[in-house]
């Protein structure tokens, strides 16, 4: 399989840029920072092990600083550790990786073959066993291929255990014009799980998606129904202290407005938040956070929430070249804010959610 890391293009300066730089020197602070465009891979770091996926975040931040991105520890390392270094999340990354699926394919084929053979052998009597074995093999190949295809298609959807956990990370990284995602594939029979940092200026996508929601404001009920139908499964279940729910809610409302809060907060006053009284104990309470934008929010706040929700899933498809759309440059929309992909982030959301 071809090396996907070649999809991270290296920025090259044009002759015009060289001439401008010779006539007009830039400030010293920007000498080591190239001119990035949306969708370019700034940095990709492989996991230390396929069976224990973990990334050297200190090294990532040092490499980003050499590239020109000065990112504080609180905006990168701390939220990434909270999102990815939980033992249950690392186990999920192993069992949901492409390498694990690749190793399980022959095992699945053998299990299906034995199941189909033992079933057909009871009801079908044939004199030539090779005919039965051939039919069983064909049926087993078809069923195994169908299961692998379903698993492959599921990787194109937003992942609750990875993509949603990276929402808080991207909410902070987007201030530095970077988006983060985790993608993996099989290369030379080895798993290759990588953490990607992709340059992305959210300004134009936020403006375009806000305008699209404002244009559809007269059919706001239909838009909300589409959001509920296509995002109903995006529910985050967490356990938080009951004291925080009873005391801290009013304080948060006094300090921050609805559209300025992070998507994944621990406040029962947030949109889509509901508490299960049957699962209450002495200290903790189970809270369900829905990622569907609240209908009372302004269009810009809804657009920002949708962009952050699908940012990691979009970057994952972008770096693995699995975005579907017009591949020819002339067929691409003029509103595409990414020259390296058939769809930009706002177009991806319009196609997936609003259509």
From TrEMBL:
Compositionally biased tracts (Polar residues): 272-281
Keywords for this protein: Membrane, Transmembrane, Transmembrane helix
Chain segments carrying region Disordered: 1-35, 256-281
Keyword Transmembrane attached: yes
Pfam families recorded: DUF4481 (PF14800)
Protein name per Swiss-Prot or TrEMBL: Transmembrane protein 268
Chain segments annotated as transmembrane: 100-123, 129-151
Comp. bias intervals (Basic and acidic residues): 258-269
